[in-house]
Amino acid sequence: MNKNVDELKQVASQVRRDIVRMVHGCQSGHPGGSLGCTDFLVALYFNAMKHDPAFNMDGIGEDLFFLSNGHISPVFYSVLAHAGYFDKAELATFRKLNSRLQGHPTTHEHLPGVRIASGSLGQGLSVAIGAALAKKLNGDERLVYTLHGDGELQEGQIWEAAMFAPHHKVDNLIATVDVNGQQIDGPTEKIMSLLDLAAKWSAFGWDVMTMNGNDMADVVQTLAEAKSRTGMGKPIVILMATGMGYGVDFMMGSHKWHGVAPNDEQLAAALAQLEESLGDY
Amino acid sequence: MKKYTYTDKKDTRSGFGAGLLEAGKRNDKVVALCADLIGSLKMADFIKEFPERFFQTGIAEANMMGIAAGLTIGGKIPFTGTFANFSTGRVYDQIRQSIAYSDKNVKICASHAGLTLGEDGATHQILEDIGLMKMLPGMTVINPCDYNQTKAATIAIAEYEGPVYLRFGRPVVPIFTDADQKFEIGKAWMVNEGADVSIFATGHLVWEAIQAGEQLAEMGIDAEIINIHTIKPLDAEAVLKSVAKTGCVVTAEEHNRLGGLGDSIAQLLAVNNPTPQEYVAVNDSFGESGTPEQLMTKYGLDAKHIIEAVQRVIKRKKTI
Q1: For residues B13 and B313, what is the distance between their CA atoms, to the nearest angstrom?
Q2: How far is A110 from chain B, CA to nearest CA, in Å?
Q3: Where is the Transketolase N-terminal domain (chain A) (predicted)?
């Protein structure tokens, strides 16, 4: 699973193809944030984490990942499928009736790789903290990762959790925030300002790091550095700068592609920009 | 009418505290969380015995529910503790998504349910919690009647796999069940066999039902009294069997009449055996400040009101 940067870029290109095809296939879903977070999730599952596709809910002896901003399910499902959790052909059922690939991830359909439902925002950091505490009680030295949207930080529960983790020295936890500056109704700075996020997390007692979430080499290196800083009494948060819609020029940087599906022409234009590297499902 | 006596009175929340300690001793996977109400939830003994298995969240109930859900991933059996209002209404969406929909083995333990928190008033009381929790698919809802039964229920839910809402109160109430009882989730407890009316009661209103039953016996009315400690899953067999015999029903609960035990029974009967029914419950209202005794009287939750409901429903009984 330990792929190098060039190999990771190939996987990322295929995952981006999957995302636009999945959202096009059911004419609903969230392509923008999914495309922006692709490099991070690919690096996480194919380089940073120790994990087992022979899925076990408790995940003892494994690193765990929790997707808090569940609406970017297309990227999560595609990465899980390519990592071997389930057959890639199942990606074609995304958001369709009787599918295990619900619009937002859930344990209810027993899809391997999913340990908590998410969609209603702001809950994932608390869950991750609980899982990290269980690891400490179990003497399990593996780590817990999360991903949150920057708009999601407007939910109050995030800051309840942000207070708890440093207070209880939950230092086996690496949270990441997708700072793409966009939410459904527009730019975050217009909708509800987040101001200085690094200062906020730092003031709550977190070890704050930053990275370019669309530069694969930076993502791999920053995750490695973050891992080396665990176990030192503080939880870690990585503020990850990304472009919403990254990889598809007409989707780039616009909140308008937060939750809109491409039409046939737009799909063709998007796929023309993304190399097929591992074969389409 | 069977005779029930008591030698001691205790609060049901102390039964929870004692049960939690016992559950913790029996199974090292049991962990506890509290949102700044350790004393109110009687968690101190557990914390003293197992400090590493307790997590103080501060006044942050939503975070507490999420952390509890996360602890189950890794095999822990988390018990959360706060007031019933903050255990349900305040965190409904967290329970819905991270616990119920995610099938997590969390035990939501709620003290000060109902009206009898008393003087604090309606912000700290809740009369809607049974309804909120029973509407969640997969959620088990338990409302034990006294100290011993609350202790037994607490131990039993630790051994049961799945999300549970355990509801108990603040006031001191008579202990009339056995200390070594076996608590079976989903199995109603026959308090008194009778022929004229079925009284289905839950929580500390079971004691009021017993008081009512004794007075009804003197009036020549033979009441069957059944303790529905598990509201979901409802023991349909016990309810239908009783109603087939008596032909009329009174339900008694410290809850809004909308969405509580009475509605669960009415729904079962409407489909299977439509039967005259009277509710002893709060009539779609918030509570207010007052002593628990004053509130029980004002909102009609005592033995006197159960007797009046029995008299009304018996008149409505169908004659073949």
Answers
A1: 34
A2: 10
A3: 9-270
Q: What's the predicted TM-score (pTM) here?
A: 0.96
Q: Using a CB cutoff of 8 Å and minimum separation of 24, what contacts does B312-317 make? A: B312/B278, B313/B197, B313/B248, B313/B249, B313/B250, B313/B276, B313/B277, B313/B278, B314/B196, B314/B197, B314/B221, B314/B248, B316/B248, B316/B276, B317/B247, B317/B248, B317/B276
Q: Cβ of B103 and A107 within 8 Å? A: yes
DSSP letter for each residue of B148-215: HHHHHHHHHHHTS-S-EEEE--SSEEE--S-TTPPP-TT--EEEE--SSEEEEE-TTHHHHHHHHHHH
B281-314 tens-digit pLDDT: 999 999 999 999 999 999 999 999 999 999 999 9
Q: Which two tokens stand for residue A91?
A: 């990606």
Q: What is d(CA A89, CA A108) in angstroms, rounded to the nearest whole number? A: 20
Place of tokens 């289905």: B200
Which amino acid is present at B74? G
pLDDT in tens, B127-152: 999 999 999 999 999 999 999 999 99
Q: How far apart are the first and last CA of chain B?
A: 26
Q: Which residue of A has its CA nearest to B63?
A: A126
In chain A, which residues have their Cβ closer than 8 Å to the Cβ of B31?
137
Residue found under tokens 């700072």: A179
Residue A77: CB atoms within 10 Å: 30
Lowest mean pLDDT among A58-72, B111-125, B204-218: B111-125
- Whose tokens are 């009449």? That residue is B257
Question: Are B67 and A108 within 8 A, CB to CB?
Answer: no
